[in-house]
Specification:
Mean pLDDT of chain A: 83
Order of helices and strands of chain A: HHHHHEEHH
Structural class of chain A: mainly alpha
Radius of gyration of chain A: 23 Å
CATH superfamily of the domain at 71-176 in chain A: Winged helix-like DNA-binding domain superfamily/Winged helix DNA-binding domain
Distance between the termini of chain A: 30 Å
Number of helices of chain A: 7
CATH class of the domain at 71-176 in chain A: Mainly Alpha
Protein name (chains A, B): Transcriptional regulator
Domain HTH marR-type (chains A, B): 39-177
Pfam families (chains A, B): MarR_2
Largest sheet of chain A: 2 strands, antiparallel
InterPro entries (chains A, B): HTH_MarR-typ, MarR/SlyA-like, WH-like_DNA-bd_sf, WH_DNA-bd_sf
Helix content of chain A: 40-55%
CATH architecture of the domain at 71-176 in chain A: Orthogonal Bundle
Oligomer: homodimer
Region (Disordered) (chains A, B): 1-35
Largest interface: A-B, 78 and 78 residues
Chain lengths: 177, 177
Amino acid sequence: MRDAGEKNVTASAGRNELPARARRKRAGNGAARPDDADEVGLDALVGHAGYAVRRFQIWIFQDFVRTLAAVDIRPTQYSVMTVIGANPGLSQMAVAKRLGIERARLVHLLDSLERRKLVKRIKSKTDRRSHALHLTAQGELSLTKFKQLAAEHERHVEEKIGKANRERLLQILAGFT
Amino acid sequence: MRDAGEKNVTASAGRNELPARARRKRAGNGAARPDDADEVGLDALVGHAGYAVRRFQIWIFQDFVRTLAAVDIRPTQYSVMTVIGANPGLSQMAVAKRLGIERARLVHLLDSLERRKLVKRIKSKTDRRSHALHLTAQGELSLTKFKQLAAEHERHVEEKIGKANRERLLQILAGFT
DNA sequence: TATTGTTATACTCTATAACTATA
DNA sequence: TATAGTTATAGAGTATAACAATA
């Protein structure tokens, strides 16, 4: 059981096999090529989790951006505000570590959120190198709205892959959060 | 059943709830903050598929790059070579469409692969605007090696999330390939 | 010496627009 | 006029290195 089906990582699997139609087209005529995307076989890519995950991630981020376009908030900005909201007083290093963002990049993200009066940096009294991060009053209010829109986005995901599959996905990937 | 558990998209779920220890730390003392990443709660992010998928995708790409570092091939380069190998004669537009890559970006990817003698552009006789893409003999040979390493990477994924989970993931996301 | 926040650089990737040569 | 390939630009994101202030 454990050793079965190892080969199909690199072998073409049934569903995405190059369609017979496309094969025929090219067989008799060197010039004819498939012009429709669905006639192009993916070969080994079919068996790669990373390829599927990347395509899905692109879709999901685009839907997130689209759904929150009215409030002009991108996924990373949302994650930063959510973590600060749940852990007020956090340092920049702590946020960066928790979210896997480079601390250099977080500087710019916070600059932008601070300009928009959603987040504020407060000098720490115990360690004067670091900043305590807080949402502003407006930030708190805005985050509530962002979370509503993010929940709407999440429903789009559910519609796209199904409620049970979405939950299974969260379970499978829980270790990476 | 269909309407149950809708709220937990924005509510903190059990597993990633802010630990009592961290909450205690901050309760009596405004200055104390969680310094360890695992003491920082994620709040609404826990319920977002996009967040888990993004973190997983980062891990999986890093492992792919690491595993294929000896041959200096990145995920996108691998996907381009695999599709050309399986569909020789394809135009740049067809490859770009199939993989969801901007055609402007594919130009640079192909420049790089062509410099390395892995891929060649051949002027089409039927449509002089377009190029027929082929692997070189060396490209064919190299791709075989790349596929072996990619299969090794895929085994890392299996070790990380489990064989059954990896297969379930591929099933759930099959529609995005 | 080490760490926090910052600035800077380089490279990948996404998203556009515009140009050329064909069709 | 539309399309294939190309060039260019701008912004997000990743990966580094180096610096000042502070620990």
